From TrEMBL:
One of its GO terms (cellular component) is cilium. Pfam families: Ank_2, zf-MYND. Residues 370-447 are annotated as: Disordered. It comes from Pyxicephalus adspersus. It is found in: Cell projection, Cilium. Residues 426-447 have a biased composition (Polar residues). This is Ankyrin repeat and MYND domain-containing protein 2. Residues 319-356 form the MYND-type domain. Keywords: ANK repeat, Cell projection, Cilium, Metal-binding, Repeat, Zinc, Zinc-finger. InterPro entries: Ankyrin-MYND_dom_contain_2, Ankyrin_rpt, Ankyrin_rpt-contain_sf, Znf_MYND. May be involved in the trafficking of signaling proteins to the cilia.
Amino acid sequence: MAPRKGELTEEEKELVQVISKGNVQDAAQLLGSKEVRVNCLDEHGMTPLMHSAYKGRADMCKLLLQHGADVNCNEHEHGYTALMFGCLSGKKDIVWMMLEAGADTDAVNSVGRTAAQMAAFVGQHDCVTVINNFFPREKLDYYTKPQGLSKEAKLPVKLAGPLHKIITTTNLHPLKIIFLIKENPLLLDQEALKKCSMVLDLICEKCMKQKDMNEVLAMKMHYISCIFQKCATFLQEGEDKLDTLIKNLLKGRDGDCFPVFQEKFIRESIRKFPFCEATLLQQLVRSIAPVEIGSDPTAFSVLTQAITGQVGFVDAEFCTTCGEKGADKRCSVCKLVIYCNQNCQKLHWFTHKKVCKTLKEKREKQELEAAKEKKRQEKLAEKEEKANESGLAIEETPDGESEKPKETEDQVTSESSDAAEKVDVSATTSESSADPNVSQTSDSSEK
């Protein structure tokens, strides 16, 4: 009998409390009890798995899934699923765990939003990226078995794991994908890379020809396939294990160290997408074609935004070498170029050293100008403050006009009257001296 909302046993109520506290051992003991149903529902229709996902308890989610928790239970009063609660928590590992357990990414809540749309709505763009880049392992395992009349599988079983790791990566930087290839010796073989590339092309074609067309996934498979083909070409030409290709992708032009080879490679990969009528391809071409090489936006940033769903690169730092998000190590000299680790810095130094001193001078000049501007603003603020303080002695009339203090006004009045007397005396004197008749009359009267 299916559990009903709000009908929890005392042990099940205790389980919900234990989940909130995050005690995995206590939860494991309770789940071993016959009185505890792993998919029980509280009064809101939330299962223990939903509670764990919402609280961000990855270890608790793993335990519940091992005990058979239903990842697609949709009894919540607003239609939320465990995947949606994982997105709300912002935990990428929980979102990934739900997807691997078979979570339905197309399920919608009571207002018609999918888990990815909910994550985007609350600003959890990393979770959106995980959902958009997820590819079930069983879909790849299909190519490890002979199909139809073919006696041989298109993909050796030993290559499925390494290839799946690359397919599901959220960092599409060509250097990052090459690093993943180098990590696994099985992929450092020309024939192995060609087989992987062929399978990626088949998946790309399937995504475009299926009923629910997936242009985003198709573009991603094509792009990774192009990188595999380029790696196979370089392995054929030399035995340096892709070091030459890495240097070509990192090499910057004189002046600004912009990686021209890398930009041209990504543009060419997009141009080679075999389905010319695809809407996504046309959008990418319109965004990239008018931009001169060396200007923003770069082909990599446009492609990343289209495939992973990341909204630009705001509030995050990315490694200059491999594009890894969250890089926090800066060049000790110029302090402008960022890396995720020392290895990436060493790889990039051969080209960065050409402009490092120039960037340092540029930074120092900007800092000096910023300091001058700050000082100017401080002086301006100080003047305004003094002006405000001196204005306290002035009272304002209701009309808004300033009224001078009374003592000052009396002083001005007395000074005005004295000045008037002086003016009258001087005027009389000047008139007497000017008229000769006046002087004669005064003389005769005296006589």
